[in-house]
Structure formats: C-alpha cells, structure tokens
Amino acid sequence: MQPNPTRKTIGFLSFGHWTPHPQSATQSAADVLIQSIELAEAAEEVGADGAYYRVHHFARQLASPFPLLAAVGARTSRIEIGTGVIDMRYENPLYMAEDAGAADLISGGRLQLGISRGSPEQVVDGFRHFGHEPREGESSADLARRHTARFLEVLSGEGFAEPSPRPMFPNPPGLLRIEPHSEGLRRRIWWGAGSRDTAEWAGRQGLNLMSSTLLTEDAGLPFHALQAEQIRRFRTAWAEAGHDWEPRVSVSRSIFPLVTAQDHAYFGLERRSTDQVGMLEGGRATFGKTYAAEPDELARQLAQDEAVAEADTLLLTVPNQLGVDYNAHLLRSLIRDVAPALGWR
Questions:
Q1: Which of 6, 215, 256, 331 shows the smallest number of beta carbons within 10 Å?
Q2: Which GO terms of the molecular function aspect are on file (predicted)?
Q3: Could you tell me the pTM of the whole model?
Q4: Which residues are CB-contacts of 239 (< 8 A; sequence separation ≥ 6)?
Q5: Comparing C-alpha atoms, which of 337, 344, 253 is closest to residue 296?
Q6: Backbone angles phi, psi at 253, to 5 degrees
C-alpha cells in the first residue's frame, strides 16, 4: 500500500470561528454557519475536492456538525464533506449513527467523517455535561474509544434490537438496526491521530487516518518527518490487520500562496514560520509550521514535506473569519498556481 505520489485530493478545513468584532466577517453563529455552506459551494466551483469542519463544544466555533453537513450535502453535488474531528467523548453512538446516516444519504454518499478522542476542552470535563461518564477505571480517552466501538458496530447495518411484539408499524423480519442506514459509510470513518501509537491503533481498527498540524509527542524530528513516520506505521498496522480495502490518509496544513497584495498584507510575515515544540495537557507536543510564499517557492517547499508526499488527501486550514471570497481565493490559488507544479493536478 504505497501512497499515490501524484494527484492529491485537496479540501479545506474550517474551525468555524466567530467573533463579535467589526473586523471579523463572521460575527455570529449564524454568520459562520451560513458562510460555511457558502464556502463549500465556492470550493466546489474552484475545483476543490472537499469541505471539512472542526467541531468544538462550549466555544464560539462550529459545534453541531450534522445539520451543517446535511445542508452542505444538499447544496453541493461533487465534493466530499466531512469533519476534522468530532470528539467522541461527547457523542451518543446510536443517535450519532442516525445523524451520520441521514447526512450521508442526503449527500449521495459523500460523507467522510473524522472522529477522535478530542482536543483540549474549553471547560472542565465538558462531556459530563452531555451526560457521559467514564466507567470505573476508565480515562476520558477510554470513554471516547468505547463510544467509537459502539458507533462502528451499529454502522455495520447488522440488526441488534429486539422488535416489539406490538409495533406501531410493521417491522421487517429479525432484529432491527439503526435507521437510516447508509451502505458504505463504515469505510469512510477517519480517526484523528495525534501520535504514532494512536495511528497504529487506527490502522488496526480499520479507520482511515486523519493527521493534523499538531502531534502530541516530540521525537527530535522535523514535524513533517515525524508525521510521515506516523503515516508509515499506520499503513503497516493496517496491512498486518488484513483489512480488505485500501485506507486513506489526510494531513492538514496552513498554506498561503502569496499572489496578491492582500495575501502579502495578511500572511507575508509567515514566511519565517518554523516548527514549534510546546506543552499540551502536560506533555510535549510538536506543532507544524505555516507555509507562506510565492507559488513557485511554495511548490518547492511542499515538495520537501515528507508527510504531504505520503498522504493522498491535503486539507488546507482556512482563516474563516476573513470571509468566503478570500478563502475561495486561497483555494483557487493553491489549485491553480501550486498544485500543477507538484503533479497534484
């Protein structure tokens, strides 16, 4: 299972920030929701392949993904739609399976659902407010994986619930499953892995790999090299598990082609960006750099990124508060001015 060195699936990843400030194009939750749909439409028009959204609770960001995903699916016809990622500590697995099945059917089978143990929270143990408690001896990460296991079970479409002897409506024979069921969705679930060990776990579980601009470890390697090793370990674990389909791998990058005066004004100083190592939840973490340069130089730099080379999917993290038009411009610049030089288009 070697990575495809040529064409990349290219999408955007929006954190969906909104701030009641006059310089923000998204000053309310309504603004960011509507613009998230509009950006997906614009991305499809400029030739991008995917629209992905981050999920954070108790924050002025996107939080409830399925109404948004369903709306994007209804307003677009070609691009993939997904999340990067849903915190499974907060989720009711069966209700989530219903929502995911509905969104996938509305989109015609274009859902690519990224899930994970979650990131640092805005509040203390926010999942408890949603009614979810770790069992005795469980960590919050264990809680997320337990929810994930149940979610994947019900996505299989196998019946498990005993039908009522006096149902309101006639039932099909046998045990009943979650409805609506969307065939094939189980193979379009991704795990957001923050470490090499977690990537190996995802490979064993038969989950596609979603890796971000942050790894929760520091091995003394450049970020892209550490992430490339994570991807290779994932592929090895996948092969050893014997799954009978090919996995996908995505990486996220902050990439700003400097094409216009506005680009230079916003992101020209990011030319000096470098990887950073810091502390996150009590442990060392490695943060990837921002790429900002003229298209030719950007192509040269990205060609040296080992993890981008390993992945089949590249998600461009967008500054959503700059508005739909500017972010569509960023996507267009990457696809038109950078991707062809790398053989991605």
A1: 6
A2: monooxygenase activity; oxidoreductase activity, acting on paired donors, with incorporation or reduction of molecular oxygen
A3: 0.94
A4: 1
A5: 337
A6: -140, 145
For residues 240 and 300, is the Cβ–Cβ distance under 8 A?
A: no
- pLDDT tens digits along 4-51: 457 899 999 999 999 999 999 999 999 999 999 999 999 999 999 999
Beta bridge partners of 58: none
Position 74 pLDDT exceeds 80: yes
Of 230, 234, 220, whose CA–CA distance to 277 is shortest? 220
Could you state, in order of their start, the residue ranges of all structural domains in the chain? 9-122+139-161+177-342
